[in-house]
Write a structure and sequence with these properties.
About 80% of the residues lie in helices and about 0% in strands. By secondary structure, it is an all-alpha fold. Helix 2 crosses helix 5.
Length: about 160
């Protein structure tokens, strides 16, 4: 079966990957720093692709709440701040790491839960599959461009937060 192009499913797949990476970052047996690096790139690429390609298109649909989309963008910023805080912790085995990781998990889990219940369900109900696949293709293209640029580094996140 070919991979999906449905933007809703693609976003959900990223959310599940983020949850897996949270488990690795919490595990003392895992390479926490590597998991954080992978997570940082994915989170930033995912959010930038949503904001560039998905959210603007969803603004055009009547039954998708603009306030929820704006709120989603605000939550991306909260997640980026929490991610930057964790990236700035030197010792992955420290109490500070655990504390900052839990702040990140809380911010991202809150956002993904809300996004799935509001924006993504709204897209499922109101956006034709053909359009969702077009958005999925645009989302993937932008996401891959960002991943190729290693977008999850601390300096890039600081730039994003300053804009």
């Amino acid at each position: 079966m070919p991979p999906t192009q449905d933007v809703v499913e693609l976003i959900l797949q990223d959310h599940r990957t983020m949850e897996d990476l949270f488990r690795k970052m919490r595990s003392v047996e895992a390479d926490r720093a590597a998991a954080l690096g992978e997570f940082a790139d994915l989170l930033i690429a995912h959010a930038l692709a949503e904001e560039a390609k998905v959210y603007p298109a969803l603004h055009r649909f009547k039954n998708i709440d603009d306030e929820e989309i704006e709120h989603g963008e605000e939550e991306h910023e909260e997640g980026n701040r929490a991610l930057l805080g964790l990236l700035e912790v030197a010792d992955v085995g420290s109490d500070e790491w655990d504390e900052k990781l839990e702040k990140l998990v809380e911010a991202i889990t809150h956002h993904t839960d809300e996004e799935e219940r509001t924006i993504l369900n709204g897209a499922r109900e109101n956006v034709a599959m053909e359009r969702r696949e077009e958005l999925g293709s645009a989302f993937l293209e932008e996401r891959e461009k960002q991943l190729s640029a290693r977008c999850g580094n601390a300096d890039n996140i600081r730039r994003i937060l300053e804009d």
